[in-house]
UniProtKB/TrEMBL annotation:
Belongs to the glycosyltransferase 2 family. GO terms for molecular function: glycosyltransferase activity. PANTHER family: GLYCOSYLTRANSFERASE (PTHR43685), GLYCOSYLTRANSFERASE EPSE-RELATED (PTHR43685:SF5). Its EC number is 2.4.-.-. It comes from the Bacteria. It holds the Pfam family Glycos_transf_2. This is Glycosyltransferase. InterPro entries: Glyco_trans_2-like (IPR001173), Glycosyltransf_2 (IPR050834), Nucleotide-diphossugar_trans (IPR029044). Residues 9-172 form the Glycosyltransferase 2-like domain. Keywords: Glycosyltransferase, Transferase. The keyword Hydrolase does not apply.
Amino acid sequence: MKKQASIIVLIPHYNNPEGLKASLSSINESEEKVDILIVDDGSTKSQFNKEEIIDCYRCGEIRFLDLDSNVGIERALNFGLKEIEKHNYAYIGRLDCGDICKKDKFKKQLQLMNEDPNLYLLGTWVNIIDTKGKHLYHLKHPQTYKEIKKKMYLNSMFVHPTVVFRSQLMQEIGYYPTRFEAAEDYAFFFKVINKFKSENYPEFLLDYVIDEDSISSSKRKIQVKSRIRIILDNFYFGWYPVYGLLRNVSLLFVSRKFTTKLKKLFSKN
């Protein structure tokens, strides 16, 4: 009997088979076996060929979950988590179609988490690139749990497709909240850090694509409004919550293109 992998990576897919294949092909683990669950969220065009997808992946087994209609990423992720619960994986990773993993990304994260049983969620630093693969800037979120808890009120301190978390979290805090459209990850991360140690691995282990068609771009104002509600749900009177609330309100009046230019300008490349 084959030994099951300790980790499965959850990848939501919607009409982006080329991005899916690019992400799968980028997973290059020298030792760690990494299984994959692809949740197709009711794709209406450019449906992928499952045999081609399986053929392009060499680091573990691939599972598929096909949804009959497009339910949105929040619910698609939760359908995936419920499916994963059936298979007793110790860890769950995240990846989005088009994002590119660096060599041994998951090995490095799992090694640190295995060494620290109190560490429940671990993200990484990322290279921000455009859809043509051009480097825009580096994104280095805080590494330590203490700093993450403070600065979480400004914005998410984790890049969603970098994270690995213990599957035990589902029993402890539940699934992704569905009442915060386009900000389910921010709400989920707040729930995690309120109870469990969470950190970022201080290495650029993912190329993260900024796409004008992504949720963060196409639903910009909806996402910011959801973030404001999440901050209010976790609010206390202090510097970071007050500043974070004012900062996010101000983001309602600027475009993501403008903030990307600012980040590129002030980032240390």
